[in-house]
Amino acid sequence: MLIRLLLIIVISILVIGCTNSGDKANEQGKKVSAIQTESQSSPKMILLVIDSIMDEPLKKAIKEKKAPALAFFLKHGQYSKDLVSSYPTMSVTIDSSLITGTYPDQSKIPGLVWFDNDKKQIITYGNGLFEIMKLGVSQFAENIMHQYNNVDLSPNVRTIHEDLNNMKKESASINAFIYRGNYPHTLKVPKLITKVSNLPEEYETVGPKMLSLGAFIHQDTKNNHLVNRIGLNDAFAVQELKYLLENNILPEFTILYISENDFTVHREGPDTTKGIEKLDKHLQEVLNTFPKWEDALTNNIWVIIGDSKQSPVNERKKEALIDLKEILSKYKILKLGKPVAKDDEIVITANERMAYIYKINESVSVKNIAKKLQTDPRIAWIAWKEKETIHVISGDHEGSFQFNSGGTYKDVYNQAWSIKGNTSILDLTLKNKNIHYGNYPDGLARLYGAMHSQEGEFLVVDAKPGYEFIGESSPEHSGGGAHGSMHKDDSLIPIIVTGTNKSIDQMRIVDLKKWILDILEN
Q1: What is the pLDDT of residue 174?
Q2: Which Pfam families does the entry link to (predicted)?
Q3: With contact defined as beta carbons under 8 Å apart, do 369 and 349 qualify?
C-alpha cells in the first residue's frame, strides 16, 4: 500500500510529468476568447512567482527570442536583478516572508525541513522522495493539506490576504502553498488517493476568497490539467488565471505560483533556459486572452519575481556533497521516522545548501559541534545562539563574530545592530557606524530570523558556493543547481514591474507586502 501511495502522491507531486497543454495553444498568434478591457476604478495586481528564475538565463532567453512574453513585460516595465530573498532560501520560508512581510523569527516557518522541539519530531514540507518515505507519507500529506497554513504559520502575523480582506479588497491564490486568509475552504483529496491511504476525504482550511491548489480545489471546473503532479503544475495554474480573466472575476490581488522551472534548474544547472522557454509559452497563453497583448497592461499591474537563485553544485559527488552524518559520526543522530530515544544526541535537517543541527541531549555542546564543522573547508560559516547573542565562526577566518538586534550600528535597511568581533566572517564592511553587506545581502536580519525561528538549541550551517549538505536521505543535486544558503548566489532574484511607478522602499522580498498594500489601498 505504501508503494502505491507513494507513486500516486509523492512521485506525482515531486516529479515533472508530461502535460498535454498543447503547444499550438501556446503559440503567440493563436487567439482564444478575449476578455473585456473596459476601464476600472482602480488597478488590479497579478503577482507571478516563478520558482528559480534568474537574471542571466532570463536575459539569455530574451536575447535569443525564446521568451517573447517575458520580453514583452520587460519592455513595458521596470527591472531589477537584486531583489533579496528570505533565508533559508527554500520555497516555503520565502513564500511565508512574501505574504506576511516578515522573516522566520515572526512567521515561524524555519525551512523546508526542521525539527519541532515541542513535538520532538522532524517536520518536512516535501524535501525529496526518500526523506518523505522515511518520515511518513501521511505526515507529509497532512503538512501540505493542513499544517502549513493552519498550524505552523504564526497566528501573530497577518498575511496579505488577511490584510486585503480587512481593507474590503478581494484576493486569489493559485498553487501557492502559503495562502492563509479569512475565508473557509474545503480541500478535497482525490478518491484514488483516499482509497489506498488513511487520509480523510476532505480538509478544512482558510484562504483568500478565491483559492486554487491543484486537484484539491480549483475555480475552473473544466480545468483538466490535474494528472501531472495532481494539478500542482504550470498548465493548471495558468488555466486558473485565464479563467479569472476570461470571466471578468479577477480580484484586486492575485498571486500565482509557477513551479516547474525549479525542477529543470535543479537537474540541468543554473545556466539552462529550458524551463524559462516552457513557462514563457504559458505566459503567452495568458496574454492571448486579451485582444492585444498591450491590453493586458490596461488597469492591471503585473509583478513578476523569482523566489531564489540557484548556484551550481560541483559535478564530483564526493567533493560536492557535505555529508553531515559523516562529519558528526561521533554523535548519536536521530534517524528519520523514528521517535527520539533517550540516547539520541543531535538532529540533522539539511535544506540543500544550508542546514539546521539540533542539540537534543544535555551532554552535547553546540560549541563543540561548531568546532568540528569548522574543520570542513566546504562550509562557509557556522552560527548558534547563546542567550540573545548570535555567534558565528568560520574555518577561513580567525576568531568569531557576535551580534544582536538593537545597538549603535545601522545597515542599509536602517536596521540597528550591536556587533563585535571579526566582521569579515559574514563579509561585512563598517564605515562610520554604518554596515555594508558583501556576499550575504541583509545578512544580519536574515540570520537573526533563522536563529529566532524556533525553540531549542541549534546551529545554522551555510555552505560555500559549489557545495550542498546532505543528511540521512536528503536529495542531492551534484552537477545541477541548488539553493538554501544565504550567499548572494542563492539570494538575489529578478523582479519585473509594470503599471506603477511607486518605488519599493527596500529591495527585499520581505518588503513587497507593504508595497503591494500601499498600492492597492488607494
Answers
A1: 98
A2: Phosphodiest
A3: no
